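Changelog-adjacent note: as of this version, every example in the card shows the full chain rather than a window. The one below runs 244 residues end to end.
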Amino acid sequence: MSTQPYRVNLSIASPSEIEYTARRLMAVREDFLSTGNLALWMPRPLILSSWQRCRTLHVNPSRRCAPLAVARETQLYQLREENVLLIRAASPVINHLSDFLADSGYVVVLSDAQGCLLDVLGDTTIRRRLAGIDFIPGGNWSEAAAGTNAIGTALADGHVVQLMAAEHYCDGWQDLTCTASPIRHRLTNEIIGILDVTGDYRLIRPFLTSFLAASALEIQQRFQALLSSQHQWQKYHLVVHFPS
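Full-length structure tokens:
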């Protein structure tokens, strides 16, 4: 009789279940990294697909620090200028989330459409921990750069992603849980950024997926309003300065 693969359940209800799941995920990941196959246990399809992409992209699973997308402060300033409407649209939402999650051990993060971090707000302790892996403004958290992580995987998959512990492909962020939702352009439906919350893996909570999706939708609406206002301003000034 063949052995049926064990599918890890992330409907987490208690600290003991979180630790049990984390240990299982560690074994699943080690099995995948050592053999390229999964003999006894299977991760969720979304995670398996991401791991396979990371293997194809030759991401180093031993990586302990994400690469930086920018090398100088001026480049970070330029990156933020290129995403100024997104940042303005997201700012009230991120501030609300930061207040809501204050002292909870989470940070709230905004990235651009390439997975480069634009803002990181939240608890000082976790921000200090995350700075050690360059989870800071200017950090590159695409899958190609940092392996399976909520930001990069949400970009690649196009959906809300929540993962924890060893579902991350790289060694450096095995102690984290991340939940991320794409932010889309309402007219074109293309992804223009990612909204994320990140903390210790023991803090994983299923409700954050719907919470982040709703927050991302609010940012989309604010972005569209700002875009419409900008177009109206430009149209007015063209009429004023270049009358027909």
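Structural remarks: The beta strands are 6-7, 41-42, 106-112, 117-122, 161-164, 176-184, 191-200.
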